[in-house]
Write a structure and sequence with these properties.
With 284 residues, the chain is an alpha/beta fold. 51% of the residues lie in helices and 17% in strands. The structure holds zinc ion. Zinc ion (ZN) binds next to loops.
């Protein structure tokens, strides 16, 4: 199978009232961990790459790995750009074969965010690529994009309605209290706001900064219309913890495969748990 758009994955998730996991990747082992997990759970899956991941691995490598993964997989696989902050970057990803993109215009005014997002939707739609937009700012650090606590603000539901109506995005990432990176203490999600945004927009919503959000809150968010859940930090933690363990246990080891193999397995297990939590296991 070739890469699919998130539009169709999220439409199926809508019908089935579950969420599709969107897992960040930046190297071969993590791509393989994501695909192995999705295969084991028979789940549709979204591979996503941030601008930082693209800089690290190179866009051609990212796309080639995702295409190969999709070709071999028996489950549907999408390749999504995470937090594209620049129009040209988004266009580059579409041209290189990403099946879906996020245009993050959240640092702009509402008018400017609508304008740039609308422009991306028009072009993406013409070539069958789906688009996620962001409104309100999600705090934390997402691969070099820093949003401080003070800068962060929650999404206004009425603005969300206008944003979705005027841009035509396929999915919306609202800011409702989650944060990128690791949490200090328990995150407090604004569920009434999430519900209102969902009622007024009627489109699939995306939960960013979901690593470290308690399972019951993830389930609640999915019950209220979240159809794509992003996970990055939990994968990094599992991957690097396994590497540390292997390096510590075997200080003389010089074969990278002996370090990265167990890291890949650890990442795969975390991803399998998330897929089951999101309700997408068995949906492929
Ligand atoms: Zn994010």
């Amino acid at each position: 199978m070739g890469l699919v758009s998130i539009r169709e994955l999220l439409a199926a998730a809508e019908k089935g009232a579950y969420a599709v996991g969107a897992f960040n990747c930046n190297n071969m082992e993590i791509v393989q961990a994501i695909i192995e997990a999705a295969e084991a759970e028979k789940a549709p899956v979204i591979l996503q790459a941030s601008q930082g991941a693209i800089r690290y691995a190179g866009i051609n490598y990212i796309v080639a790995m995702a295409r190969e993964a999709a070709a071999q997989a028996s489950v549907p696989v999408a390749l999504h750009l995470d937090h594209g902050t620049d129009f040209n970057q988004v266009m580059l990803c579409i041209r290189h074969g990403f099946s879906s993109v996020m245009i993050d215009g959240s640092r702009y005014s509402l008018e400017e965010n609508i304008a740039v997002t609308k422009k991306v939707v028009e072009i993406a739609r013409a070539v069958g690529v789906s688009v996620e937009g962001e409104l309100g700012r999600i705090r934390g650090t997402e691969d070099e994009i820093k949003v401080s606590e003070r800068e962060a603000f929650f999404t206004d539901p009425e603005e969300a309605r206008r944003f979705v109506r005027e841009t035509g995005v396929d999915a919306l990432a609202p800011s409702i209290g989650t944060a990128h990176g690791r949490y200090r203490g328990r995150p407090e999600l604004d569920f009434p706001r999430l519900q209102k945004i969902r009622e007024l927009t009627g489109i699939p919503l995306v939960l960013h900064g979901s690593s470290g959000v308690p399972d019951e809150d993830i389930r609640q968010a999915i019950a209220l219309g979240v159809r794509k859940v992003n996970i990055d930090t939990n994968i990094r933690e599992a991957f690097v913890a396994a590497m540390r363990r292997e390096l510590g246990d075997n200080p003389g080891e010089i074969d990278p495969r002996k370090i990265l193999g167990p890291a890949r397995e650890a990442a795969r297990e975390v991803i399998r748990e998330k897929i089951r939590l999101f309700g997408s296991a068995g949906k492929a």
